[in-house]
User: Fold this.
Amino acid sequence: MPPAAGVTTTQAPWQKTFLAFAGPGIRRPSESMRVTDIDAEGILEDLAARDWQTPVYVGTGRHAGYTLCHAAGAWCTALFHGRALVGFYADSYLWIAASHRGRSLSTPLILAAADQRGGTILPPGIALQGYTAASVAVHLAAHRHAVRTALAKGLPVPAEVLEEIRVGGKGSRGPALPVFNPAG
Assistant:
């Protein structure tokens, strides 16, 4: 069961390495993990019956009109535009409607879901989550945003997280992650 509204997490995403934030599935992305619009239809039907907590994020500027809410009693964060549900991070499924993509909405959606889940995007009980190459990229962008925001606020970012960002360097594709070797 998710924490009650207002319960703070024990760690924030910026306190975790990218691997701890996203889980081991980032090491072997596959396009077979993509959540299609058809897949999303079934999830949206289930989410329509949910009760939603008060917004944890209210967009401003280019995100004006968007809010993020956690579902009551579920590991789910939804993206609303007005009253329309236009995206979600439900269990381990991330999806944003095509007409709302390309607006950097995945960053606040991912970080709100991570906040609900204790600083990681893995829901309790899920040890491995699948990713596409694109979802690795948006999760990396969200994690880096969290780290940079923490640094700008003067928060004590752990040395291993700072080293990961430093090793990744400006313009890099992120931290060096071990490549999956099926032979062991």
The helical segments are 18-22, 37-48, 106-116, 133-152, 159-168.
